[in-house]
Design a protein that fits this description.
- This protein is globular.
- Helix 1 links the parallel strand 3 and strand 4.
- It is of the alpha/beta class.
- A 6-stranded mixed sheet has the order 2-1-3-4-6-5, with helices on one face.
- The model has no long low-confidence stretch (mean pLDDT about 90).
- It has one domain: Rossmann fold, CATH 3.40.50.
- About 15% of the residues lie in helices and about 35% in strands.
């Protein structure tokens, strides 16, 4: 997930099943469930089942992303039996692209969750 020792990690709306993944983080990592008014964010995971929640988050926090921040939008897979979602990779990508974020990578977190890494457009290398 491109974790490179960032001290402050924002993990927003994570399901309880994700907590086991936090055990491998170093002890000095500080995990916060939201981005404070005066904070900059370097590493963000937001879990969501609603596209509106993701777009509101992006609008409210885009300016707080420090440099080439690592931002993952985590959403339920279409095959998840536990969670339902009103968006998919393509609709999320499209909505966030309008805000200056570009999807650059997809991963599976577990049997229920996928994640889409978004980067600020200015940091994405364009193919020639």
């Amino acid at each position: 997930m491109n974790y490179k020792g960032q001290r402050l990690i924002h993990i927003i709306h994570a399901p309880s099943s994700f907590e086991k993944n936090l055990d491998s983080l170093p002890g000095e990592a500080i995990i916060k469930p939201e981005i404070g008014d005066e904070e900059e964010a370097e590493f963000v995971l937001i879990f969501s089942t609603k596209l509106e929640e993701v777009t509101v988050f992006a609008k409210n926090h885009m300016a707080k992303l420090k440099g080439d921040a690592v931002v993952w939008i985590c959403y339920p897979k279409g095959t998840s039996k536990k969670f339902k979602c009103d968006f998919n990779r393509d609709t999320c990508w499209e909505a966030l692209q309008k805000m200056g974020l570009e999807g650059v990578r997809m991963i599976a977190i577990d049997e229920d969750w996928s994640a889409l890494r978004m980067r600020k457009e200015e940091f994405v290398k364009k193919k020639r």
